[in-house]
Amino acid sequence: MSAAVTTGGLACEQLSVHFPVKAGLFGKQVVHAVEQVDFRVAPGEVVGLVGESGCGKSTLAKVMVGLQKPTAGTLRYGERDVWAMSAPERRRVFAREVAMVFQDPASSLNPRWRVRDLVRDPLDVHEVGTPAQRRERVAELIELVGLSESVADRLPRQLSGGQRQRVAIARALALDPAVVVADEPTSALDVSVKAQILNLLDDLRARLNLSMVFISHDIHAVRHVADRIAVMYLGRVVEEGPADALALAPRHPYTKALFSAVPTLAGRAEERIVLEGPVPSARKPPPGCPFATRCWKVQDDCRQGFPAPSVDGDRRHWCSHPLA
Known about the structure:
Layout: H1 3-7, E1 10-23, E2 27-41, E3 46-50, H2 57-64, E4 72-77, E5 80-81, H3 87-97, E6 98-101, H4 105-108, H5 115-125, H6 131-144, H7 161-172, E7 179-183, H8 191-208, E8 211-216, H9 219-225, E9 228-233, E10 236-242, H10 243-248, H11 253-261, E11 310-312, E12 315-317
Parallel strand pairs: 3-8, 3-9, 6-7, 7-8
Antiparallel strand pairs: 1-2, 1-4, 4-5, 9-10, 10-12, 11-12
Helix pairs in contact: 5-6, 5-7, 6-7, 7-8
């Protein structure tokens, strides 16, 4: 693989995903799941992607791992346009370099396969090494994610939720990818196990020099592992920047509302912001800022068109009347 491919990171450029849906007996409408998103993950960087359920995070994740073709825009890996590759090349190159950890390990792992078979499957599919080398790699991966050797012969139903998620992470790392997209990897876990998985991902990132996209609705969990955070609302990115900077001084009102909504172990740092007003439909997104119907700083110009990005050093926000 060329150096340009392996060192250039993963980037979405003006990327949109629309889904046609039925409306009534004969009518059709379009769901604007993702709309003109610019999003980049540099080599060795962890970028958090946060927002409410239904904002388009998981759809964007599927695009980033090649499971969903975008309606418009470009997905680049290094200097390569992923969807300009032929299907065999995409499987041979891109599928080995970008892996995904799914939200629910109970449904993403074959219940009839033992752990060693689940972890070895990507190696078999891509014909990596000899059978002996694959067995050695499986043992290495199981140890890497903090599981004991005895787990290898168990079925998924014989494991705890945290153990299943560790198996899913080991499977994602089997081909030694450069980028891992983790879609809500802790949402099905209790608090103590969630902390263990977050620490594991943080440790693996440092040990393997992984690039990672960490997707969650829990903005404080994302802040724990991410270098940068991008905030999505109704299919659009509305703010992005360094994780601590967004937490301490958000520019977009929606970002501030997200941080106020999730308590930390030390309690709430500020009064919770309760959002009022209707959430626009993704079938008929408004012409202006999609957050205008719930924003306490809304003015007439907010409803006229989606604002251009405002750049402040390594931060960007899409808001006509940002917070001080």
